[in-house]
Amino acid sequence: MASHRRSVLPPPLAAKLAALGNKLGQSDDELEDVLAELSALPANVIVPASREIATAVRFGWWREQNGFLLPPLFGGAASTPQLLRKNRDYAWVFLFHPSGYAREAALDSINDPPTSAFFFATLAWRLNDWVRPVRQAAQRCAERVLHQTTADVAAKAALYLLDRRLVWSRWTDEANVLDSVFGRRDAIAALAAHLQEQSTGPVATCLRSASRYPDIDEHLPHIAAAAVQPSVRAVAYQWLIAGKATWPVGFEWAWIDKVYGLRRRIPVLASRDVRATRPAAEWIREGIHDKSAFVRRIAADALVGARAQIPDADILIAHLAKDRSPAIRSRADFMLRHPLSAQS
What we know:
Blueprint: H1 11-22, H2 31-39, H3 46-57, E1 63-65, E2 68-70, H4 80-86, H5 91-94, H6 100-109, H7 117-127, H8 132-145, H9 151-161, H10 164-167, H11 179-182, H12 185-197, H13 203-210, H14 220-226, H15 230-242, E3 244-257, E4 262-273, H16 280-288, H17 293-306, H18 313-321, H19 326-337, H20 340-343
Antiparallel strand pairs: 1-2, 3-4
Helix pairs in contact: 1-2, 1-3, 6-8, 7-8, 7-9, 9-12, 12-14, 13-15, 14-15, 15-16, 15-17, 16-17, 17-19, 18-19
């Protein structure tokens, strides 16, 4: 039996989209409700949602030539430009049209910023559009409106979009326009708050991608101390201790065996110095007392190399020797068996 992918659109929303499609150009009754319910969708469903929205509105029933909708079975349908002149809010629906003419026209008619993370992600998805003129229209639109986006909307979108930079493959320089929004000081502050609060999802990956923006540095101490996910606290501690942040910028091929032509893709990282306000020893000390063994292991590894600069290193090592994690006790055992005096 064939498996069916679960729909990301709630059935009531799909029904309203169908009703909107039935009256397209004749009545705007459902448009306001449709846009409100689309706004409530999370940003991370944009890819499957884009297909489902086009299907629900039955955009596939029309073929488009030079921006005009031509219904094959009945007359009376308005063209895309006519609908957009009548009500610009149609643009947010026509962003999902299978015709590049309609998507481009919709992008050129948008003059207001997205009011939700989902619609922010929609514009980003169009920056990655498979049609080059649509990508160019999306870039013009993004440069026109995204700087007006509220900090919270930008932050919620960033949680999903920051690591799409390397996953979505069609865009090149088009993605750079997002930096002007995600790198804003107020957007970074809102993003840091979300990074601390999120209990699920690849939040540590998002933090790594956000490290390209230097303003994240002032929030790292709070993230290290209070983030819900241990992996997020661990990344913050790593950067604060090392004084350096790294993030992925692409991939390159590395040979495994040239004789047999075996190779694999490895990530390429960029880095920068972190603006830390306290010595690394203090972050090591705090990390060693974290409630997560994952974080304590990061701090214990750092202590191995930095114990010469930490006056109370013996006390910290003794504390680690009683840790409930065998992996952490093994690090303490190594330091006890290899004291610094014996190495000098």
